[in-house]
Amino acid sequence: MAIPVEIISKVIEQTAKVVDEQVEAQLSKLNEMDDDDLERLKERRLEALKKAQKQKQEWLSKGHGEYREISSEKDFFGEVKESKNVVCHFYRNSTYRCKILDKHLALLAKKHVETKFIKLNVEKAPFLTERLRIKVIPTLALLLDGKTKDYVVGFTDLGNTDEFSTEMLEWRLGCSDVINYSGNLMEPPTGTQKSGSKITKVDKKSIRGRGYDSDSEDD
């Protein structure tokens, strides 16, 4: 049953009135502020900007803002210990899909300075890969406060395609709270999936097993 045009018009008119009243209230509040109030407001905003800049510089000093390779398991523990949010790509040189991930992670590292993005060759980290039960390559380990919260195993969560977008990977990382994601977490970005592909949640049991399994058809 169609909604009468009169009702729709009335709802729009009422909504516009509420918005106008809210804007008017804000303008009135600003008009009532004296010079001291405005100066305090300016100081608070300046202080917030300084705090944000200081935090950014602290992140950069810890290696955030760039996608870096670490050389050993010992380095991994040091990197994770000093940063709250960490994305670690466990890769192998012979696996083609690892190179695809490298491209997207390099872009996200620059965009999300709040998170550290690193990569580690599984052949140099046998103890760590066994401890984290990483058996499918590539795998992203998503860590918060030094603890592994989630995994992105292969490209299953990214639409089961090599042609997923950086936005798709960004959304997936946002679902695990390892980056500050400003989009809609309820659904993946549009226009990033092939027809018939599905987005599924990571089943951590899928990374258990013996030996490394490659998620790359070209490996």
Question: What would you say this structure looks like, in words?
Answer:
Strand 2 (85-91), helix 4 (96-111) and strand 3 form a beta-alpha-beta unit. By secondary structure, this protein is α/β, with parallel strands linked by helices. It has helices spanning 5-32, 35-61, 73-82, 96-111, 126-131, 166-175; strands at 67-69, 85-91, 116-121, 136-137, 139-144, 147-153, 213-214. It is built from 6 helices and 7 strands, in the order ααβαβαβαβββαβ. Strands 1-3-2-5-6 form a 5-stranded mixed beta sheet.
Number of helices: 6
Beta content comes to 15-25%
| DSSP strand tally | 7
Globally, the shape reads flat
Oligomer: single chain
Radius of gyration over all CA atoms, rounded? 23 Å
List the helices and strands and how they pair.
Elements lengths: L4 H28 L2 H27 L5 E3 L3 H10 L2 E7 L4 H16 L4 E6 L4 H6 L4 E2 L1 E6 L2 E7 L12 H10 L37 E2 L5
Parallel strand pairs: 1-3, 2-3, 4-7
Antiparallel strand pairs: 2-5, 5-6
How do you describe this structure in short?
By secondary structure, the chain is of the alpha/beta class. It has 6 helices and 7 strands; from the N terminus they run ααβαβαβαβββαβ.
Keywords:
5-stranded mixed beta sheet; 219 residues; flat; two-stranded parallel ribbon; 7 strands; single chain; alpha/beta
